[in-house]
Automatic annotation (TrEMBL), chains A, B:
Coiled-coil segments: none
InterPro entries the record matches: DHFR-like_dom_sf (IPR024072), RibDG_C (IPR002734), Riboflavin_Biosynth_HTPR (IPR050765)
Sequence ranges assigned to domain Bacterial bifunctional deaminase-reductase C-terminal in this UniProt record: 8-198
Transmembrane segments: none
Any single Pfam family the record assigns to this protein: RibD_C
Record SUPFAM superfamilies: Dihydrofolate reductase-like
Record-given protein name: Dihydrofolate reductase
Native species: Kibdelosporangium banguiense
Length: 205, 205
């Protein structure tokens, strides 16, 4: 067994009450009822409207060697892959590397422009992590979300570094980070305030 | 009707998953199962072990003109006041002003050393706030906790400024800030990282 240099990281944007998405997620509103008028604009405004002052966090977020995401984060299609769907991000997704999508329904790998390839993993989170680590080489593997997927990896003790981006609103309901996860001993390794988001990085012990 | 200059503030220490206290609160462990060995030492360590670097927040926290707290924050006695109990803080509590305790059971005011007096309010949160504002004059009224009380004031739209002190651990269960509170539009007015706590101040709109 070799020692890996890459870590398992997770960047997640959450409301002040810990939700990464509101209720009623749909193709039109992938982050559900988040107080905005679509496309998660209120939760994720810090990435777009104030990108310049958050450049360090955005670069870190994009820097992983491979990504893992849940089926709901990949798209709104449930059950069998009965209609074409290649993610929310158009022909050239912002990943530019291998992305492993957790699903119960097998599907052939889907290459995209810009070196992104979506792989579909049907045999669980450990298998997805092993495949992502192989793809990442010495790079980090990023658990991309949503919170349901992140919670599974946290509960299994598989995340090394959790980077939260806490935005000034509450959702009151939805998919909540840490829900059902046993108590964790965290170490605050970095914390930085921007205008309308607070970035906190925890090492998970 | 006169315009008040004082605000209604709330300082609350919470875990990264939003709990202000764990399960199984008791006289020996007022903050319940918080991963420490008693007295809320892990949640509130930032106030004691690293007080010097958090001096600004501690002074702000103590600076209100009057305080309001829930019965559980005042003490472990439930139901009638059938045994002597004057709070967790000894003869000279750190408030040095009027403290209004929400309860269903009437009790005479309890003066303490150092100008703290505990008043017991049986007719609800609005009444407690009106009494505290009268006592505070132009000063702020601080909703002292616990989260159940804070959530009632948040849901009623009665808190102007929420100052969270987020510590690096999760509890997984207990009394959670924002639980049952409708979605809030917050404004991040200040955010500061200390070694093992992140302080975030929100204005509540």
């Amino acid at each position: 067994m070799t020692t890996r240099t890459g870590r398992v990281t997770c960047d997640l944007t959450i409301s002040a009450d810990g939700y990464s998405a509101g209720l009623n997620q749909s193709e039109q509103r992938p982050f559900g009822d988040d107080g905005g008028d679509g496309w998660g604009d209120k939760l994720h405004a810090w990435m777009f409207e104030t990108a310049e002052e958050n450049r360090a966090e955005l670069e870190q977020l994009a820097g992983a060697g491979a990504f893992i995401m849940g089926r709901n984060m990949f798209g709104p299609v449930r059950g069998e892959w009965d209609r074409p769907w290649n993610g929310w991000w158009g022909d050239n997704p912002p990943y530019h590397t291998s992305v492993f999508v957790l699903t119960h329904h097998a599907r052939e790998p889907q290459p995209m422009d810009g070196d992104t390839t979506f792989y579909f993993v049907t045999d669980g989170i450990e298998s997805a992590l092993a495949q992502a680590q192989a793809a990442a080489g010495d790079g980090d593997v990023a658990i991309q979300g949503g919170a349901t997927t992140v919670n599974q990896y946290l509960a299994a003790g598989l995340i090394d570094e959790l980077r939260l981006h806490i935005v000034p609103l509450t959702l009151g309901a939805g998919t909540r980070l840490f829900e059902g996860v046993p108590p964790l001993n965290l170490e605050q390794v970095n914390s930085r305030a921007a205008t309308s988001v607070t970035h906190v990085t925890y090492r998970v012990h």
